[in-house]
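hey can u check if this looks right to u? its 822 residues, i copy pasted from the old doc so theres a chance i mangled smth
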Amino acid sequence: MERQRSLDGTKEKKKKVVLMGGGRGHGQALEPSEVERISMDERSSYSSLSSGILPSLGARSNRKTKLRPFIISPFDARYRLWETFLVFLVFYTAWVSPFEFGFLHEPKGPLPITDNAVNVFFAIDIILTFFVAYLDKGTYLLVDEPKQIAWRYAKTWLVFDVISTIPLELARTVLPKNLQDYGYFSLLRLWRLRRVGAMFSRLEKDRSFNYFWVRCAKLICTTLFAVHCAGCFYYRIADRYKDPKNTWIGVVMGEDFHQHRLWNRYVMTMYWSITTLTTTGYGDIHPVNEREMIFDIFYMLFNLGLNSYLIGNMTNLVVHITSRTRKFVSKIFLIAQRDSIQAASSFAQRNQLPLRLQDQMVAHLCLRYRTDSEGLQQQETLDALPKAIRSSISHYLFYSVVDNVSEMKAEYFPPKEDVILQNEAPTDMYILVTGTVDVIIQRNGIEHVVAELKPGDICGEIGVLCYRPQLFIVRTKRLSQLLRLSRTAFLNIVQANVGDGAIIMNNLLQHLKEQSDPLMETVLLDTTHILAQGRMDLPLGLCFAAMREDDLLLHQLLKRGTDPNEMDSSRRTALHIAASKGSLECVLLLLDYGADPNRKDSEGNVPLWDAILGRHKAVVKLLAENDAKLSSGDAGNFACFAVEQNSLDLLKDIVHHGGDITLLNSLGTTALHTAISEDNTEIVKFLVDQGADIDEPDVHGWTPRALADFQGHETIKALFETMKEPSNQPVAVVPEKQGVPALSKHRSEPTMPIFRPEIAAPIDVREASSSNDHRRQRRENFPNSLVGIMLAANRPSIGERAFYHLRAILDVEGSCIITVRE
């Protein structure tokens, strides 16, 4: 199996997003060693942003990848030093290979020894390459699987690297006689020149080197190499020609030009090559025979392209130096990056900014360039896609941090950069994907770190939800990736899903209540006072107030004329919720304002049944006094549920409150059938006493008598025998209606009661809101808060029923968890 290591090297289970998580540990469950290394690692520097690799979208960590044993990282400093050393050897190869090809007939002097020594170093590099991990350009994953490394190297450069390392002496013994010339095989070593191109590309991106001089050095090297190669070819053509006098060098130096010093011949050759390349053409040297003319034709054609390349690059460099209208966004990213960095550095020095601010400016520009050039800022691509695809992409990339939030945008922040400033306007909130950030509060000019956020935590949510200035400074400790959600986009989502907004506000109150910070307690008091303020419009419906058992808020909403029978997405009214929670005050208020006590929800339940299930006797009595009856609901379902629970008392309550326990349920069976399947003789006797017919078939054609006989319940059969039998009693046979299979339900344990979020333990926030003190504070700017924005889109008109899609309240486990679904 292929094995690829992502930048964090870990896989984690899917979790809900922690919207109100504060501090630590509510998001991704990192290993203790990883957490400790992240929190203690302060070595992230701004210079490191120009090298290495950035974490991919959704990656959990950008720390150094733990590779397999004996595998080398391509970004290791020692390996980079080795590559630099090989580049200097390539410069030697670039000069000596054409020279040997043109001027030497056989190994001579120290050159063969030096060549073989250089070959040894490149042979070592071939072996070393099999142990160097590589970066997959498609997925940006660091691959350290030895088989994949070897296969990739074998498919690309292995053959050329091996051939270029073979000693020339060995090659001459293997090659045919017509190819045993000393220079032919040496030209294959020019394959190593690709390393020089990679080195110059790296230096051009390194801001510690001057881009102008790096570019000039590259152009000079290119020109010198072209001149050197052409000169060596000129000499070889003349040297191998049959008539020395009929050659260009024979005309200049005589037919005995071989007797001249090698240095003189080399200088003469280079002189003619460079005059031809520069198109000077003094006329003192010219091609004589046909071979020289043909080569000169192709050389001059090559010069046309080379001169165009040189002139174009030099023009660009001159314009780059003299232009005063350059901007950061440019077609040439490298030049644009350097312009912006130099301008930022000059600005900082001219205005004598602190060193920390200077570093932040430079780091931000470097990181912005890298994310753009490496394709990590794909927001334009995402914006062009439909919302469903964006949601799926976000779910795949960030599923363990945030679930189905397509409006969030991934951004990178360098170390020591302020993401949020204290007391700034609440425009965005962030979820931390990778890295570590400090939450800082500033008092009397002194900064105090109050918390450290880890991947999965959120910051800036209190300011956005409550529409108040940001409470803290949020500053990165190292290179971090955050998901940004703007307040505008968030409120647009909430306006379309008001029920989710109610859940968020409820979770916010619970989160604030759990905080021990005095500042958070102040925010909690302000928020709860605002929610109960009677003279302001609220976007929250009756169901929200009943869920929180807030009779004060409920009363204010009813006084405004809110429909007391408004329903949520499950068609449950506030009376259903209040009855299930046993909130006598809320039930009384709703009944006083005309709430229907016999309204059914989508499952056929009525408020009285919810109160009976919750064993809220006072609420049951109050509803019964207001003509609430179980007969208005699906009494057959109620009776079957009571039988499945083996609860005779619950059955008696159903009968007491007008429920018919002999009716069919939604599955087409009766409580008596269910009791027989459960082999509960006591309940069977009670049902029969209440008028259940033992000969009434269900939708499958089974009568209770036949079912008891088929399942062999002797006690129940004996009970049926003691009853008075009618004259036309049918024979208990297995029904054959439309091929219905024989029903043979075995006795089972009582079924698990259906979980209803409304019946869960209430989240009481009134304790923190001082319910005994009804003097509430107003806040004039509250219409700009979350609830204020929600109200504008959802305020019901007179006589109009407003549907608030309130979902079940989420479990709160130390922090609030929400999922915004589009």
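The first strand starts at residue 134 and ends at 136.
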